[in-house]
Structure formats: structure tokens, C-alpha cells
Amino acid sequence: MNIHTYEKLWLVAAMVLIVGFIATVTYGAVGVGIEMVDDDGATLDPNSLDEDERFSDPRVEEVGEDEYEVYVVARQFLFQPDPIEVPANSEVTFYVTSADVIHGFEVAGTNVNTMVIPGEVAKLTVQFDEPDEYGIVCNEYCGSGHHGMEGKLIVTPEDEYDGGDA
Ligand code: CUA
Model confidence over 46-82: pLDDT tens digits? Predict the structure, then answer.
């Protein structure tokens, strides 16, 4: 069978494209370390957060110089602790889990915005440079009180800070 040169060229080009597409999809799925939420099982039991050392006492913890960790529990229909207080000029890592259903955790006006899934811990790190006040909202529908599920994050001036739980 005789195939024209151009025909051949296009055939080859089409093959290269197809193989290329498959390769990039495969790479995107397995090559860059993206894991599905449940790949290694739930990380904690939402029904016994009372016994979990990180979440039995939702709190702000100073873990280094200008470094804080905040353990947040979202539940119908509030966030704990509330308000959350951290000093300005600090790097804050939020660990957020849910005690019941899926919630959202959005610190309005920042790029802190995550889904909160029972059994999983969402982790977000953010830098707060200036004293300010932010509203925290739940942006996943979680039941009858969803619209009123909110909290507050207070970034206090460094020299006025006296621990996380106001
Ligand atoms: Cu919690 Cu909506």
C-alpha cells in the first residue's frame, strides 16, 4: 500500500499527540504525588475527638519563635476555639477537622479556605503581618444552621498578645 508522504507525516503527528496526551494525564495522576483524600485511611475518628490529643482541646499553641499552631474543630454550627487569637508577625498553621459533617473553613480576606472533612485533618499555613480581625465562615452547606456558622480570627499587636484563647 502506498501512503503519501504528507499523509504519513500527519499520521505520525497524530500518534505523537495521542501518546503525549496519555503521558501527561498519566503523569498528572500518579507522577506528581497527588493523593486522594482517603488513600491511607482516615487519620482520626470524628466521634472520639475528645480522646484525640490534638483536638480534645481546640487551641492555639506557640511552637517556635513567631510560629503558632491552631487546632480547630468545626461542628454544627460553630468553630472551636472562638475567637482564635494570634499575634501579628507570626506564621500560623491551622489544623482543622470536623466532629460531624463536612464543613468549610474560610478566613475571609485571606487565602485560607478549605473543606473540613470528618476523619481528615486539613492543614494550612499562613503568615499574618499586621494586626487585624477576620471573619471565619463555613462555606459548605452543613445543615439548618449553616448560614450562622461563623467564627472570628483576631490578629493582635505583638506586644499585646497573651496566649491564644481569649
Ligand atoms: Cu458548617 Cu456550613
Answer: 888 888 889 999 999 999 999 999 999 999 999 999 9
Among protein residues, the one whose CA lies closest to atom 1 of ligand 1: 103
3-state secondary structure 17-37: HHHHHHHHHHHHHHHCCCCCC
CB of 140 sitting under 6 A from ligand 1: yes
Q: How far is CA 24 from CA 28, 29, 31, 130, in A?
A: 6, 9, 9, 42
CA of 33 to the centre of ligand 1 (A): 30
Query: What's the whole-model pTM score?
Result: 0.75
Task: Return the closest-CA partner of residue 113 out of 98, 94, 127, 130.
Answer: 94
Per the listing, cell 494570634 goes with 86
Any ligand 1 atom below 6 A from CB of 106: no
